[in-house]
Predict the structure.
Amino acid sequence: MKDFLFYAPTEVQFGKQSEELVAQLVKKYGGTKVLLHYGGQSAKRSGLLDKVCGLLKEAGVEYVELGGVVPNPRLSKVKEGIALCRELGVDFILAVGGGSVIDSSKAIAYGVPYEGDVWDFYVGKAEAETCLPVATVLTIPAAGSEMSEASVITNEDGDIKLGYSNNISRPKFAIMNPERTFTLPAYQTAAGVTDIMLHTMERYFNPDCDMTVTDAIAEALMRTMMDSVFAVLENPEDYRNRAQIMWAGSLAHNDVTGNRLNGDWATHQIEHELSAMFDVTHGAGLAVVWPSWARYVMKENVSRFVRFAVNVTGVENDFTDPEGTALKGIEAMKRFYRAIGMPTTIRELIGRDITEEEIKEMASKCTRGDKIAHGRFKKLKAADIEEIYRMAR
Ligand code: NZQ
Ligand code: ZN
């Protein structure tokens, strides 16, 4: 096992009624004037937003609201948030929502004390030295942003979706009440589980395969997701399984199975171009990309794919044909995606055939004009990424 750093400082309050603690926690982490950041309709419709407002008021914590964050959150909303926070002297950002709202909150948090353009961080021009504290009341288990150091923002000017990672933005606290996820539509539930599994798979398919203990955790997490998702699709108010999924979402991305050493992340990079160009749901895009990525890179380490096939998807090991076993595991994942209502081709994802020009443009943007490669399991240049898009057509 290699040396590693594990850093997961977020205080998690998990369970029914956990949002009752929101005002107390804001105060504990120093918030006196809060930006309450949220998305479209769901948090309003469910009454969660009113509840949080009521609790803050009761506790005498001042707040200002900024809603309207869309999935694949936009830079323009981030800039609106930065201006508002500066004008009103906001010192704490509370994200009520999912990955998009949390990521938008983190970007605002970086931007408020920074004199330059917040996009500098995302294009690698600058490193944030400080940011406002961020915390969340989570409403969808998927992105794992509630414990992660990442924030992914789309710049509408050029449809560029980029991530920026910095430990200083890890949320101070995350309130997770699985009951708040009962209202999730089936598609978002399935896309969320796909994303949770992919955060585990990105770390599982790495060149250093000696993390026996974290491999075992990863496999258990993935198998649990493959059971629990069917239970909640059948009964959206199944607390037990909603809770498994919600906690798995954090464990999948707080690096407990990665230890910051490993990770491939090519599937994510390749998907981010699809959501930047076509504004599709991140998890659904991952379901489309992963099987093609897997077939493209499999020969780099067939035994890893055999282990995944047997231990995660339950395929029988044909010792005389490792490649056949590995391929059966990839096919099993594809069947799983279909069974939970996820697309498995770009055509299904965007509703039409993708053009060769679009494929080339996405591969070029993904590699910044073929200047950088992605993936650690196998290094992928623009030509490789184009081929993966073609295989996923
Ligand atoms: O906007 P509202 O009306 O709230 O609706 C949202 C949105 O349409 C809805 N929703 C959320 N909670 C709900 C609900 N609907 C009913 N009931 C509820 N309780 O779900 C939709 C999707 O929300 P979003 O926040 O976009 O989902 P998710 O958490 O999957 O976040 C996706 C974003 O996170 C990024 C993705 O790229 C994407 O932009 N990621 C962030 C990461 C990170 N920061 O660490 C890592 C991930 O790999 C990912 O890239
Ligand atoms: Zn993801």
DSSP finds 16 helices and eight strands in the chain. The chain has a mean pLDDT of 96. Residues 39-43, 71-72, 97-101, 103, 139-140, 142-145, 148, 150-152, 180-181, 183-184, 188, 192, 195, 253, 268, 282 surround 5,6-dihydroxy-NADP (ligand 1) (CB under 6 Å).
